[in-house]
Amino acid sequence: MLGRVNHIAIAVPDLATAAGSYRDVLGATVTAPQALPEHGVTVVFVELPNTKVELLEPLGEASPIASFLEKSPSGGMHHVCYEVEDILAARDRLVEGGARILGDGNPKIGAHGKPVLFLHPKDFFGTLIELEQV
Ligand code: CO
To answer: Residue 27 and residue 31: Cα distance in Å, rounded?
Structure first.
């Protein structure tokens, strides 16, 4: 069911600083900031030869990463995104197996304009998993 790692996401308190650090100190290609109000985050992507790193900054008052940054004020690894071919088939299989889908259980459109779902971290060894249909 799982395909490639699409991206690894890091929550950061200040996106401009983090993007600058990846660009200028680590020498990576970084995309322009993209606000995703439906997800409560602003993102940039660090483009690497084999995958991407997503840097996330809270957007709005009900940002889902606000409590994460309260516990880890300097930032930290937030989720891993795996590709799937059919997100609804993947969801149904996961629900049947007892895994919990965050939110209302239906895919939302993610940063790449494709459907995404998040799985409860307690069902997967403390790691928040995002699935993206490609
Ligand atoms: Co993501």
So the answer is: 13
Distance 92 CA to ligand 1 centre (A): 21
Ion ligand 1 — residues with CB under 5 Å?
A: 9, 54, 81, 130
61-82 pLDDT tens trace: 889 999 999 999 999 999 999 9
For ligand 1, the distance from its centroid to the CA atom of residue 44, given in whole angstroms, is 10
Ligand 1 center from residue 98 Cα (angstroms): 23
Which residues are within 8 A (CB) of 34 and not within 5 positions of it... i.e. 6 or more apart? 42, 43, 44, 111
pTM score above 0.85: yes
* Structural domains of the chain, ranges and CATH numbers in brackets: 5-133 (3.10.180.10)
Active-site residue numbers? Answer: 130
